[in-house]
Structures are given as C-alpha cells and as structure tokens.
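Re-run with default settings, no changes from the original entry. Doing this only to confirm the output is reproducible before filing.
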Amino acid sequence: MRLNTTADLFRLTASILLTLAIWPDISEHVVAQQPPRPAAGATLADAKPRPEETEVWEPVPKVVTPGVTSSNAPSDAIVLFDGKSLDEWVSVRDKGPAGWTVAGGTVVVNKEAGNIETKRRFRDYQLHIEWRIPFVISGSGQARGNSGVFLASTGPGDTGYELQILDSYENKTYVNGQAGSLYKQYPPLVNASHKPGEWQAYDVVWTAPTFNADGSLKTPAYCTAFHNGVLIQNHSALKGATVFIGSPSYVAYESAPIMLQSHGDPSEPISFRNIWIREL
C-alpha cells in the first residue's frame, strides 16, 4: 500500500494501535469457542458421549407370564381365593376355619362368622381383589353394602389399615368413608363405582411402614389404588392405622395378614372373587 500523505500515515498507525488494543479480547473469544482437546492418544470420536455409557444390561429382570386378562393372576402371584375354597384364610375371631360361604366361584360374607384374614403375613405387595354389592340392596349411607379390605390387619377387631368397600353408587355418605377411601383419612380421587349387581375390582400397591429400633416411625405406609381401572389413591401417605373415632397413629409391626371385614350393618352381604397377591 502506498502512503501518499501524512494523513494516510496517521490513519494506518491508528488502525494498527486499535487492533493491538482489542486483540486480547478477540483471542479469548476464539479460544473459548474451541472444543476441548482429546487426551493424549485419544481420538476425537472418543471424546463424544456414547449410548453405551448409559445402557444397563444386568441383572436381567425375571420373566413373569401375565394372566389372560388384567384380572387374572400372573405366574408369580399367590392366589388367595380361586373360587373353590378358603384354604388361605382363617377366622379372625379364633383362627379357625373361615366361616364364609363359598359357592359358584365366589365367597359371600357371613356376618355372624365375623372377619376373615389370610394365613400368610405380608409387607409390600400388589393386590387384586374383586367384589360385588348385591343387586337387591337396602339401607343407605354407611349401612349399605359396607365392608373393607384391611391392607394390614395389625390387631384385634378392625385394627389396621382399611381401604373402604361400600355401595357408593348414588349413595351419599361422608367422602372419607365412601368406596375407595383410606378410611377416615383420604377420600378417593374420583367415585368410580359400578351399579349394585356388577362386579368391581381394586388393584392396590401397598408399601408397609417402617420403624426405628425404638418403635418410632421411620417411613409411613403408602397406598396406590385403582378402582375399576381408575386411579383413586395416588401414593397416599397414611397418617397411621385407620380408626372410626379419634386420630390415627402408628404402632410398630413387622408383617401382617390381609383382612376382609364382616361389617355389622343390616344390609345384604357382599361377595368376593378372584383374589391374588404379588409380594414386592
């Protein structure tokens, strides 16, 4: 470039000085935009994340054969009632044979015989149970098809954690006592009840409470439940055992049977069928 005047020389000098002044900022920006250099001996491909880095291959989950329908027991389930006998159940009252009536693939509550419970004791599990309010049903409120599934029966009488059974089809009562409620603690998210005479189903995931060495509560019990395929309890944390009067509280236990309630209301007795459990 030819410099013809003093002014040209002055402009060139100013341009050079300005470039030198801003060069550190430019160089830092350029360096910041460069990808990290691979370690010595590594290739550029080695520096990129690979899908294999987040793949887990073992342990391989065991194979479980599902039932023909979602209500049928899968291959790893314990069948608690197969429609033929109550061999898996005993009377809560005296631990003798369960005195309910088995006929036609169902078991009907015998209110005179009282509650029945499983011979086996459980902690965490998945439970399927089907129940039916009789087509002809009398009474109203809590005196209409009342029963319950005690997800852990932890003492005499009705001591434990109850998922309520009731005819809640067009039958008004307190909402934390209707079908699908964790009794006196959590109402169901929705009322998914069928009409009397139609079979209904509960599918439950139960997580038992845990306790410290001194018997104090470590983690609460949790219940997730579906009523006729509809979510009604979403990982609900229980405040303790369910009680008719007063406030719930926890008493330490290791494992417990599942109990079916023979309620003392005068309405016609309900029926059960197709009960199975998977321990978790």
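The radius of gyration is 33 Å. Residues 17-23 have pLDDT under 50 and may be disordered.
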